[in-house]
Please model this.
Amino acid sequence: MAVMVTDAGVHDGTASLTLTRILKDSLSPVKVILADAGYQGKFAERIRRDTGYKVEIVVSGDKKKGFKPLKKRWVVERTFDWFDNYRRLCRNYERAIETVEIVVKISAIRLLLNKI
Model:
């Protein structure tokens, strides 16, 4: 739907606000955004207020019961793993942020074409 690559010095929460505005401007059909516990509080509230998206926080639950993969979160982790299979995304080879965004988009297109 939308890709945004930033410098390491940009906080994820700040970048998420910008990314959701980009997503909203592209007239995306997204209605719910899944986020981890790091986005609770002011970031989730600002996203709700500024864009109207519902933010659903996915938390791991009880730590005493041990590791238990979460279905919704696993989809994201699996996608990042698939991107690591591409040589240009497994390391920081690129110098320009715009190039990384384009390579991520090309990799996503390739993944979708392989599903057909």
Observations:
- The longest helix spans residues 97-115.
- The first strand starts at residue 32 and ends at 35.
- The mean pLDDT is 82.
- The radius of gyration is 16 Å.
